[in-house]
Amino acid sequence: MPAANHSTRQITWIPVGTLLSGQDISLAVHRLVGTQPGPSLGLVGGVHGDEPLSVELVRRVLGALEALPLRGSVTAIPCANPLAFQSLLRNTPTDMLDLNRVFPGDPDGAFTHQMAFVIQRVLREQCEYLIDFHCGGLFPTVDYVFLQGDDEDFARSIGSRVLYSGSPHKGSVSDCLRQAGLHTMVVETGGGPTGGEPYIQKAIAGVANVLRAIGMLDGEVLVRSDQLILSELKIIRPHEGGLLISSVGLEELGEVVSGTHELGRILHTQTFQELEVLVTPFEKSVFILVRAGFSPVGSGDIAYILGNASSIP
1, 30, 272, 302 — which has fewest CB within 10 A? Predict the structure, then answer.
């Protein structure tokens, strides 16, 4: 019998298919069952294989939640694309498709479509709410929440300073399940070679606050008074590839600056000649994704993301 003061965890394996090599691919589904009936929350990480922190986020959040007296259940798929994770690639290496653009998938389609079909079926059947974890990738660090549909209160409860209310990505797991009737948010947090511990701790605290907000956990719901809701983001992509020497640090994520400011300089990787200077795009810009220190960057890669805060007092 489970103890009365904490949830119990079960792990089941959901088969996807067999590769040409003979390797069987299955996805682990973790399920926390609370001490009382209640709502159901889904957690997803590792949709993009070059975002390893998202897998660790789900692991650490599950560990923290397991010790709590939850009402309802939590269903988690911590590594949604194990083949991409193994290769540290954004896309599935078998067919080079982006898993987060093919939902709801197709059981008779390409391998990535088959994987998407399995994932959305599990979450649709077991969850009412969904948090889809992403991070900046191997070099950038990001910090914002993608607000979808009319789920503003749900998205606010995670406690991030910046929320973006733009159009959802078609074919993403969150948009697919939102259309199926779930309440969804995309949490973009951490990434890069920073270790991620501050973002992990923030995610643990944020998910606990979400649970209080939706009635799965007792306690006061914390409300952040300085949140910004943005409707426009600008992705800064350099025209020249090289070594990016950043002029901003992680401490500026969520901060608003006025006027034109230097973001970073692109240097030739062999001669160190300055090829390009990247600058803020708006009259008032808020930092959403940054690269701190130095990093390699190709022409057209994502170097920074900034939000338009010009209409915010």
Answer: 1
Cα–Cα distances (Å) from 153 to 25, 31, 61, 156, in that order, read 37, 25, 21, 5
DSSP state of 100: G
Beta strands in the chain (DSSP E): 8-18, 24-33, 36-44, 71-77, 129-134, 141-147, 162-164, 183-190, 228-230, 233-236, 242-246, 256-258, 262-267, 274-279, 284-290, 294-297, 304-308
Share of the chain above pLDDT 70, in %: 98
For 87, 122, 258, the CA distances from 230, given in Å and listed in that order, are 34, 32, 16
Q: How far is 120 from 77, CA to CA, in rounded Å?
A: 11
Q: Is omega for the bond preceding 140 within 30 degrees of 0, making it cis?
A: no
pLDDT at 312: 81
What CA–CA distance (Å, rounded) separates 29 from 33? 13
Strands 162-164 and 228-230: parallel
What stretches in the chain show pLDDT beneath 50?
Answer: 1-3
